[in-house]
Hints:
Blueprint: E1 2-9, H1 14-27, E2 31-37, E3 46-54, E4 69-72
Parallel strand pairs: 1-4
Antiparallel strand pairs: 1-3, 2-3
Amino acid sequence: MFQIRIHGRGGQGVVTGAEMLSIAAFEQGRHAQAFPSFGSERTGAPVVAFCRIAEREIRLREPVMAPDALIVQDPTLLHRSTSSRD
């Protein structure tokens, strides 16, 4: 299974990007899932989205903690405390 985590801010297309990756994988005959994780929704707030792609059915439903690929759309998020939710 290939796992992707995308970090960005509301309005940058983080959730849409994860969805597009999963649709592309599905169209190539793979199993895929995409889902977001965010708090109170507002433009500019931190957002994380996850995407999983596999050859077999994906039964896992929790957030991706050890991604194979990491996409960071807003580099200012790199300076956030590691104890925060994102």
